[in-house]
Structures
1.
Amino acid sequence: MDPKSIRVGVKAGAGRPPGYQWSVWILNVAFDEAMGFLSPVQYEHLAMQFRELASQEDPTHSDSISIRSMSPEDYYELRDKGGVLGNINTRVFFGVDKDSRAIVVLGSIKKQNDGPTPKGDIIRIRRRWRMYRNDEYGKPRIG
C-alpha cells in the first residue's frame, strides 16, 4: 500500500439520516502507525469517535470527545485513554480541509508521558499536514 495515499473512512452525506456532514480521510501512513499499537477493537473505538465528529457541524469542538487545538499549528489532537484502550494514552492528530469538507487523519501516538505532546511528534505531524495541503498525498478516490 502506498504510504503517500489516502483511504476514505466515511463520506460526507453517507450514513444514517441526516448523514455525515464531513468526510473522514486517513493517510495510509497514519493507519499503519495506529495499527502498530492498537488492536482492531481499539482502532474501531477511535474510528467511532471520528464518525461522531464527522456528524457534527464543527469537528474541532465536541461535548463528548476530548479535542485540543495544536495552536499555533492549524491541526488538532483527539485525546483518549481508558475503557477499551486500557492503559494506552492515545493521541490522534487531524486537520480539517474545509474546501473538501474532510477531516484528515494525520497520525497517532501512544503517549508515554503525562506532559506535553513530544516535540518530535509535533514536527512529524506538522510535516504531514503541510504535505497534505501541498497535495503531495493527492485526494482519495471516492466511489
2.
Amino acid sequence: MAAPKQFSSSMLTPNKTVLVRGNLGYNNLTRPYTGDELERRNKEAQLRGRNGYSPTAHEVVDVTIHNPQVIPANPTQMTLEEAYVNERFYQSAKNGLSYGITRTNSGVPAIGIMTDGVHATEIVPPEGYVVGNPVVTLVVRTFSTKAGRGGMTLDAVIFNEEPSFASGGNRVKSQLEEHGIIWTSLPTELESAGAMEVPTPAAIPAPPVVQAAPTMPAQPIQAAAPVTPAMPTPQQAYVPPANIPPQVMEAASQAASLYEAPVATQPKPGIRYDAM
C-alpha cells in the first residue's frame, strides 16, 4: 500500500516548472499513442491495477525515467511543486526508483540536447525510438484543470548526451516483451510503423533513338532490262586498204586461205535421190 502523500494536486500553483533528471526508460517521445493503441494501453493499465490515461485523451506521450532526481531551482530548498514531484517517485521491481509523466492531447514534447551544461539546443529527432537509457532532464510544468485541481504535464525532454534512434517496429516489440508478450513475427502494421529509408529509384535510361527508315524514291525502281547475249556475226570479207604493197596483200591472202569459216548446210527443197 502506497504511503500517504504530504502534498496534493490542489496545492499546486499553475505554470511552475520542475526539472527532473534520470535515465530514460519506457517512452514514446517521437510518436503519441492514438486510436486502438491508446485504448489497448488503457486496458493493460487497468488489468495491472494502475490508473489509465484520461478518458478525454485522444493522444498521449508517456515517459518514464529511472534513478530520478529533482534539480531544484534553489539548491538549499525545494519549492512545493518540486516537493510534489519528488513525492511521486516510486519503486519499480525491475528498474528501482522511477518517475513517470504524461503529455495529453498536445503532440510530442520539445526535444533538445545540452551543449555546454548551460545552453540547450532543440533538435528534431527522426521517427523511431531512443536506443539505450541516456541521461535526460524532464521539463515538467504545472497547470490548472477545469475541475479546479492542479495537474502536471511534460513540456520538454533535454538529452545530456547525444541520443541514438532506431526503427519503430522493434520498439513496439520490445515494449510488448516488457509486458510478457513475445511476437514470433511482427504484424504488417507494426512493421510499417518503423522508420525505413526508401531507396532512391535508379534513373530510368532514356529510350533508344529509333533511326528513321530510309526514304524510298518517289518513282518506282525500274527492273533492269534483260541483257541479250551478242551473237557472233558472220566473218566479213577483208577489204585491204588501197596503199598496201602487193607483196603484203598476197601473204595475207595466203594466210586467210588457211582458215575457212564453217558454213551451215541448208537443206534444198524437193526430193533428194542418193546415188546407189
3.
Amino acid sequence: MNKAIFLVFMATIVCFSSGCATLKEKLPPLDVDQTAQAFFDDLQKSDNQDAYSLLGKGLSQRVSFDQFDQFMRVIREEWGRVLTDDTAVMPFHRRMGEENFIPLDVDPKKIKRYIFDVKFENAEMNFDLTLAPEGDGYKIIWFSIWGSSIYMNPKIQDKIEELFSNPDKSS
C-alpha cells in the first residue's frame, strides 16, 4: 500500500512540476517595474540564469552568460548574498558607455532607469538598471554598480572591467 501512495504522490509532483513550467511560458510579459524587481529577486535566489534572461539583446550579445555568472559568483564571494533591495525610479539620462546598448528608434521617454540600494551580507551598494522596450515587454539594456570604495576591492573591480570592457573571448 505504501508503494501505491508513493507512486501516486510522485506522479502528482511530476504533473505539478510540468504544469508550472508550462504555465511560466504562458504568463504575460513582465512590465518595466516587474522586470527590474525580478532581476534582484532572481539574484537573491542565486538564480543567475533567470536574472541573465532579463538582459536585452545588445547587452546579452556583449556579455555571455558565463561572464555574467562568474561576475555574480564573485559578488557573492566578496559581499555575501543579497539581503534586501530598495528602489527609486530616476529620469532617464545617458551615462558614459551606455549609448552602445540603447536600441535604435526607442523613444527616450520609454526608457526607464531604476536605482537599487542593495544590501548584501557584507556590503551595501547601488545598482543602476536601465530598461527599454523589447518585444512585448521590457529588458535590461544596461546596469552598473557604484557605492563605497571600501567594498570595491580589486577582485570585483577586475570582474567589472572584464564584464564591460572586453568581449567574451571564450566563444
4.
Amino acid sequence: MTETLHNLLGQEDPASLPQIERALASQDELSQDQEAVLSALIWRRCTQGSAGLLGSVLQRDCAQRIEEMPTHLEAVGASDAAAATQELVDAIPLDDDRIKAGLVDWIDTQTDVVRKARELGTGLEDIDRAIWEFMKDPTTEIPDLPISTRAQILLAKLRAFFSPGTAETS
C-alpha cells in the first residue's frame, strides 16, 4: 500500500526522507516550498557521505542547485547549513581558470578549502528535523503526494530485473 506524504507527516519523527525526495523529484512542477524541501533533501543526501559539506559542491545533483541552495536551506529552517554552504561556495573562485580542468581536481590541490569545508561542516544541525517541521507547517504548500514504501521500491526493482527483455528476435 502506498503511503501519502500527509500520513507520514502525522508521525513524530522524520520518516521516509529518501522516498519523499524521489516523490518530489518526479513531479513536473514544484511550488517554491516544494523546491526548498527538494533542495534541502538533496543537500542532506549529498553531505551525508565521507565528503561531508564538500559533497554539496562535488555531487552533480547538489552542485546544479548550488546557487539557490543556501536560500532553500534557510527557507526550511536550516540556517547553519545555509550559512556554511554559502561560505564554502564563496571560498571557491568559480571564475578561476585553474578550475576549468575540473572542480574535483582543483579541490584536491586546495588544502585550505578542504580544511575550511571540514570546519564549516562540523556541528551542522541535523536538518532532518528542520525539513520535517517545515513540511508539517500548515502554511507551506506541500501537496499530499503518494510516497512509495521501501518494499514497493524493492519489488519494482525486482520486477524490472526479472521482466523479459525487449530484444528483437529474427
